[in-house]
């Protein structure tokens, strides 16, 4: 087992990522390690990897178009208007404020798919209000990470449709045919588990915390109003949302939304190139990681090491719970290293599907385990957007530590409930 090309390749990839080595290069090197150790050779391994990359072409295009949507929204006053409403309604209710931030964060994954682009715009102006309330920012970090992660884990909308499509495609690549509705019918367990974690985090960090910052500064009332530009961009976001639900195609939805924004001048015609360039800058690297991850999964399937892992699985097939926990823990380690749930699915699916079948798990349990195993570690990973995004906003005044104030709290309050929820769900489904 210690010479298994799949095991060694994943260990190499995890070690490189934990050493903060470039993720894209880490996956490429790990793919070559798997190919060489299995006897395929470097040239043929490279060919397999490139051929396998086409499996995530739709996802890569979706990311780039969503980046353009995020860029267009960030150029308007929509977020500023939202800040004003929050500060006026919830300025004295810290618990409701934290939960409202979690709700707004959820919208960034589904209704207005801007991902983390809203955080640098929304959070820094609210820091004086947090300081006045002596609000523990670790609770806010958990709220933001919840909103960045729970919606795509549990709902087939926005980034969730991308996540579920990747899960569907990789399951089919490994012999398990499912529909998007099949996936959503079980992945709600992940969202529910994270919701429990959110409430526990809000309770645990409910005590006041003084950051030693003068409270003379208060949140200023913003005078931003809805203009024709804001309405046009909002209309484009709604169209993107509606089209992608109706067609189950995120690229078509995002493209439709962009066209509406351009036609109604939410995006000035002479600024289209700039918006697209900013979208590329925001999402292109993630898109390429997705492409390479799909190629990596193809190499692992061709290496022959999976069959050996399935034989190993038969040794513990008598204990489903041990096999389930093993899959979840390995998924946690991989995603902690990669920092991307989306990129983890192609890596683990080729191993976990036959592994799950050998344990006698039914299709719903397989869907849940692979989906949650991929999502585990995204919260708590120092290299994940789900933690880097919250820190970027909360540390605008230098009072919020990335590891101890974002990564550790989100790791504890989300990964533990996810492991428990996935284990119970897999045993009962």
UniProtKB/TrEMBL annotation:
Sorted UniProt keywords: Cell membrane, Membrane, Transmembrane, Transmembrane helix
Q: Which residues cross the membrane?
A: 21-43, 63-84, 96-123, 143-164, 185-205, 231-264, 276-300, 312-339, 351-376, 408-428
In which compartments does the protein localize?
Cell membrane
Which intervals hold domain Putative Na+/H+ antiporter N-terminal? 4-89
InterPro entries linked to this entry: AA_Transporter-Related (IPR052576), Na/H_Antiport_NhaC-like_C (IPR018461), Na_H_antiport_N (IPR032813)
One GO cellular component assignment for this chain's record is: plasma membrane
Q: Which Pfam families match?
A: Na_H_antiport_2 (PF13726), Na_H_antiporter (PF03553)
Task: Extract the signal peptide range.
Answer: none
Outline the extent of the Na+/H+ antiporter NhaC-like C-terminal domain.
144-420
Q: How does it sit in the membrane?
A: Multi-pass membrane protein
List, alphabetically, the PANTHER family matched: AMINO ACID TRANSPORTER YUIF-RELATED
Q: What name is this protein filed under?
A: Na+/H+ antiporter family protein
Q: Which organism is it from?
A: Campylobacter mucosalis CCUG 21559
């Amino acid at each position: 087992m210690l010479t298994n090309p799949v095991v060694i390749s994943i260990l190499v990839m995890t070690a490189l990522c934990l050493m903060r080595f470039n993720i894209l290069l880490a996956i490429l090197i790990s793919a070559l390690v798997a190919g060489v150790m299995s006897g395929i050779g470097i040239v043929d391994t490279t060919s397999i990897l490139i051929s396998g990359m086409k499996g995530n072409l739709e996802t890569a295009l979706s990311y780039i178009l969503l980046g353009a949507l995020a860029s267009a929204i960030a150029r308007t006053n929509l977020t500023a208007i939202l800040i004003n409403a929050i500060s006026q309604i919830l300025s004295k209710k810290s618990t409701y404020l934290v939960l409202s931030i979690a709700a707004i964060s959820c919208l960034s994954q589904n209704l207005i798919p801007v991902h983390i682009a809203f955080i640098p715009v929304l959070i820094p102006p609210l820091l004086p209000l947090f300081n006045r309330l002596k609000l523990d920012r670790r609770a806010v970090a958990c709220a933001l990470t919840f909103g960045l992660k729970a919606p795509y884990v549990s709902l087939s909308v926005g980034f969730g449709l991308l996540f579920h499509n990747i899960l569907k495609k990789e399951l089919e690549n490994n012999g398990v045919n499912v529909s998007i509705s099949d996936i959503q019918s079980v992945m709600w367990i992940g969202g529910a588990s994270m919701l429990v974690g959110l409430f526990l985090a809000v309770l645990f960090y409910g005590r006041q915390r003084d950051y030693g910052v003068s409270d003379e500064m208060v949140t200023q009332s913003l005078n931003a109003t809805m203009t024709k530009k804001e309405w046009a961009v909002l209309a484009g976001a709604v169209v993107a949302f509606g089209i992608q639900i109706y067609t189950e195609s995120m690229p078509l939805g995002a493209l439709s939304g962009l066209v509406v924004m351009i036609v109604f001048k939410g995006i000035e015609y002479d600024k289209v190139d700039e918006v697209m360039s900013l979208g590329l800058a925001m999402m292109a690297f993630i898109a390429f990681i997705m492409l390479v991850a799909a190629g990596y999964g193809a190499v692992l399937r061709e290496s022959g090491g999976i069959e050996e892992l399935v034989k190993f699985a038969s040794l513990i097939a008598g204990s489903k719970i041990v096999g389930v926990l093993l899959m979840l823990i390995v998924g946690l380690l991989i995603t902690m290293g990669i920092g991307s749930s989306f990129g983890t699915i192609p890596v683990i699916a080729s191993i976990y599907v036959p592994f799950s079948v050998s344990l006698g798990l039914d299709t719903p349990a397989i869907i849940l385990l692979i989906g949650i195993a991929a999502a585990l570690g995204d919260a708590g990973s120092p290299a994940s957007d789900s933690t880097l995004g919250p820190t970027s906003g909360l540390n605008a005044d230098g009072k919020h530590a990335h590891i101890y104030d974002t990564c550790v709290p989100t790791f504890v309050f989300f990964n533990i409930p996810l492991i428990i929820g996935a284990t119970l769900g897999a045993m009962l489904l």
